[in-house]
Specification:
By secondary structure, this protein is an alpha+beta fold. The chain folds into two domains: 16-106 and 165-203, no CATH class; 251-442, no CATH class. Helix content is 52%, strand content 11%. The strands form four sheets. Strands 1, 2, 3, 4 and 6 form a five-stranded antiparallel beta sheet that branches. Strand 3 and strand 4 form a beta hairpin. Helix 3 packs antiparallel against helix 4 (72-82) and helix 13 packs antiparallel against helix 15 (383-397).
Length: 442
């Protein structure tokens, strides 16, 4: 499952007090570092905002180290911040936090063995011919190990960090408090609603039996796509805290960037069509398009899909509204886009005309690949920067935007992540042609 790299071991704090202490230390380091940076900049005649002084490159490195040790919901904070634009973080700070997207610290062997002993029993090693103690991946909720069972099955075991599941609510509340301290949240954001949605999603990600059900379901849904590989679940080795599945060979999908253009475009079209199938056909979507969740098998020319902890079912009425708004976008019908934006919750029925125009403007810009005729060059596109600039101007300078409804939060993550994925592999895709079969006029 990708290239193995050595990971620094650090024990996962399993108690509420231990995790609170970790976040408290992170907050203290941020404040002290921010004070020092403010004094230095003032001496140089420069005055910065709170976020800029708190999230310097040095502070970001310290924060990343703390969050990588905590894992869980706390680590999600750093992943979120690392994706923000230059209007929030310096390039150096964003780069410092970006390490959290590539993986967490690994558990020390003694802690790993305790978890496996608790889940499988004292003689857990007897279940395997071989168990690789060096993880092949380590993320915010758990780490993955390659193993071979006694009967010869090649499996990947996702082992959950101790204490992460029961600490989610407290972690999210503490992270929200830390975000308020940093003072980088947009004005008008419904922090309580966003926190509630984050808790719901993280509780689901920590439920490995639920992930096993989504994994099996998704494997059936894409059975007609020969170029996609979804691992089987091994139920005899799956528990509440260990998910056993097929070991899927492959390299990081980014390795496709060196492949011929024809191959990159074909994979890009495959993945973009999959997003439309998830939304309009399956009404089931894997909402975490982290680069690490995709593998490229050069030998078979197939794409492996991993990690279904963040899978969600989409309500039929929400899907119907997205279908209608997509039709309106393709037609260029701004009045219909506004009407369906109200249905989804991007707009309120009593919002001003200026507010409505602003929302429609940002929707039309974000959906540029959908409106584009012919193949869209994702790698050369400046769309993310233009969306960031327009969104910042409308939201902060003119006060005409508010955060989207919480129920759309993870759907948006999928759309943004998919765009970045296609940009990373350098794909050219006719998105308009791909979506057309899913938008029949009735």
């Amino acid at each position: 499952m990708g290239e193995r790299r050595s990971r620094r071991p650090s024990s996962v704090p399993g108690t509420r007090l231990g995790r609170l202490l970790g976040l408290g230390l992170a907050a203290g380091e941020l404040v002290l570092g921010g004070m020092a940076e403010s004094v230095r900049r003032l001496a140089e005649g420069e005055r910065l905002g709170a976020a800029q002084t708190l999230l310097t490159a040095a502070n970001a490195r310290r924060l990343a180290a703390r969050l990588a040790r905590l894992r869980g919901a706390a680590m999600k904070l750093g992943q979120l911040l690392s994706l923000e634009g230059d209007d929030l973080l310096s390039r150096e700070a964003a780069a410092a936090l970006a390490v959290l997207r590539s993986g967490a610290d690994a558990m020390p062997l003694a802690q790993l063995h305790r978890v496996l002993g608790r889940e499988y029993g004292k003689g857990w090693r007897d279940r395997f011919q071989r168990f690789d103690e060096e993880p092949i991946a380590a993320a915010s909720i758990g780490q993955v190990h390659h193993a071979r069972t006694r009967d010869g099955r090649d499996v990947a075991l996702k082992v959950q960090y101790p204490g992460v599941a029961r600490s989610i609510d407290a972690d999210v509340d503490n992270v929200a408090a830390l975000l308020r301290l940093i003072d980088i949240l947009p004005h008008g954001i419904d922090v309580a609603a966003i926190a509630a949605e984050a808790k719901r999603q993280l509780h689901q990600e920590a439920d490995y039996l639920a992930e096993a059900r989504f994994l099996a379901r998704y494997r059936k849904l894409v059975a007609d796509e020969p170029r996609l590989v979804v691992p089987r679940v091994h139920r005899d080795l799956t528990t509440d805290r260990v998910l056993a599945m097929d070991f899927v060979p492959g390299a990081p999908l980014e390795s496709l960037a060196a492949a011929p253009a024809r191959e990159r475009d074909a994979v890009g079209a495959l993945l973009e069509r999959l997003v439309f199938r998830e939304l309009f056909e399956f009404r089931v979507m894997q909402t975490d398009p982290n680069f690490a969740n995709y593998l490229w098998d050069e030998r078979t020319r197939r794409v492996g899909l991993l990690d279904f902890g963040a899978t969600m079912e989409l309500a039929p009425e929400l899907v119907a509204s997205y279908r209608l708004v997509c039709r309106a976008i393709v037609r260029g019908d701004r009045r219909a886009v506004r009407e369906h934006a109200v249905e989804i919750g991007y707009l309120g029925p009593d919002d001003s005309a200026a507010h409505g125009d602003a929302v429609v403007e940002i929707i039309m810009l974000v959906c540029e690949p959908l409106r584009h005729r012919g193949r869209y060059d994702f790698a050369a596109s400046t769309l993310p920067a233009r969306v960031r600039e327009l969104g910042f101007d409308l939201a902060f300078r003119k006060g005409l935007l508010r955060p989207p409804p919480p129920q759309t939060l993870f759907f948006h993550r999928k759309l943004v992540g998919s765009f970045l994925l296609l940009a990373r592999i350098g794909a050219h895709v006719d998105v308009r042609a791909l979506v057309a079969p899913f938008l029949p006029e009735r």
